[in-house]
Known about the structure:
Number of helices of chain C: 7
CATH superfamily of chain A: Calycin beta-barrel core domain
CATH topology of the domain at 25-41 and 73-219 in chain C: Lipocalin
Number of strands of chain A: 11
Largest interface: A-C, 69 and 61 residues
Distance between the termini of chain A: 68 Å
Oligomer: heterotrimer
CATH architecture of chain A: Beta Barrel
CATH class of chain A: Mainly Beta
Largest sheet of chain C: 9 strands, mixed, barrel
Strand content of chain C: 25-35%
Largest sheet of chain A: 9 strands, mixed, barrel
Strand order of the largest sheet of chain A: 1-2-3-4-5-6-9-10-11
Amino acid sequence: MMNRIPFAVVGFVVMTAAAATAQRGGGTPEPSSASAAAPIDLTGSWVSVVTEDWRWRMVTPPKGDYIGVPLTPQGRKLADSWDLARDNAEGNQCRAFGVGNIMRMPGRVNIAWEDPNTLRMDFDAGTQTRRLRFGSSPAGEVSWQGSSVATWEITSGGRGAPPGKPRTGDLKVTTTGMRPGYFRKNGVPYSDKMVLTEYFDRHSEQGDEWFTVMAIAEDPAYLSEPFVVTTSFKKERDGSNFKPTPCETTPPPR
Amino acid sequence: MARHLLLGMYLVLTIGAARTFAHHSFAATYLEDQSVTIEGELVQFMYRNPHSFVHVMVKQKDGTSIRYAVEWGGVGQLGYQGVTKDTLKAGDFVIISGSPARNPDDHRVRMITLKRPKDGFNWGQREGEVVD
Amino acid sequence: MKTLSICALLFLAAVPARAQVDLAGDWRAVQHEDTFRRGGVLVGEYVGIPLTPGGRLRAESWTASQLTVPEHQCIPHPVTYAEHSYAMGQMRVWNVVDPETAKIVAIRKRGTWMEPERTIWLDGRPHPPAEAPHTWQGFSTGRWDGHVLTVTTTHIKSGHLQMNGVALSDDVTLTEYFTRRGNYLTNVTILHDPVYLTEPFIRSSTWELDPSLNFVRYPCGPNEIVVEIPRPPNFVPHVLPGQNTGLDEFAVRYGIPVEAAGGGAETMYPEYLQRMKTAPVPAAPKPAAAAAAAR
């Protein structure tokens, strides 16, 4: 009996929403999966275009160079004590390739539907994989990429819209449950308490296809305010340039 | 009076918090890892945007004088810090330290500190007193 | 349980968000990325910019002294630079409403430093003919694509991409995507310049709404034109090609190959990581000299 009560509530809500949609004249039928509901197409092979923060992304910056990152005193203390050799010895080579920095790493990402409700992102930098799960993310072990819950945000052509109106929108992803990692290759830290919120937008411009991800990192341990960066990728014809490499951070040149 | 003082402090703090960078790149204009100190008679004070300028006649070892141009803040920045067009006058003896320009022919300096010994007026010692 | 999960998916998979949003307000630049670059670039620092050889030559022939001549003193930042410049650390946006129809026909934006101000027309008007005058902020039209304001700007005067001599021609065009999420406003810009760039150049910046912002005025007009640096009459500061000292400073300071500092499209892509492993790197700088006496 107790198990049936939540089902009844959900059923009531579904029926109410369906009735509301019917009152508006029917509109666009509701897609049955996240892949069918996608207002934008993020699938394909993409390459990062490093036009900003070049010397923090293409090169390992010196220890203590965390300009722009709103670190707490504890965060600065950790950043100032970064030790690459220790990270390597302890098997933490992938600290800079975690979810807090993987989108900023120069490299390529292949995006495809692993199943109708899971968008998979494979990165050649550090040979990393993110799974963006629509609906909910199963509680799993803590990982470099954490657990990501995805939602489509429809801004036109969605529920109740006139038939034929094109869908537009973006992808919102919330990630928690990550291992502590680095925002930058030189040990600028984030903790396992970080909440990373990302918004993915698509742009088509003069024959080129792009996506830009806006990332808002909130970390009560090491950030004094939300840390906001935006990163852009350009679509490639295919994945032939995708070349997985292991997690490796070269020492700073100076 | 107290209310005006508090308002002034708020405005200074706001300017300090919303720091803007210059309309040109200081790193591309000046040798920021070097410092020079010049002293001499102030001959012109141009209180204006985008940057105020202080011109100082600096005596050289050979007895000649060279006119130095010292770049300072804009009117908005300096105004909030209490510097007005009447703060400095032609004839004042001033001691200025700053970063020298990359082009030595310009005889140009970016202000870091200014002192006027006759009355102790100084700039560059307090928080926020940085040329932006 | 399976039925419950499907029901949850139906609602969580697609959430109606918002279409056109209001961009009006006072905005403060979020200075978390490219912090140093926007206002503190060195001579010879062109990494990540797809420069043509001509663009590089022009940049290497630049001197900051050019900004001191009377004709340049009050030039505002062109739209190609202003939208990402922290010299425009404050921005005010407001709507222009047609009093007859009550429709928003344009959006106006104003920055602080040198007060660049631009109009983005939303009323469907066409761009002027190619031979129409160019301005520092160009001619902009916009349209809403769902929650994104897509803006196209043409007729921009020849200006700069970076404050160390990286120039743009008057053939440059700009496409922008403004997106507001809560109190954040993101602007993604894509530049095309057939003269100085070999391929499209994309950048992005974020602003945060700040109703308490003390919007600073920074006018610069004819009354502000002075002799900043005394020079002989009619002398124009310049650096002849190949004569610019200090071009290697960025590479030396950060241990980066000199060729990387010179920019080019290849420096934008991950393949360049391999190239940098073998490209020659200049020796480390000597310790800075102690503070010098008066010249």
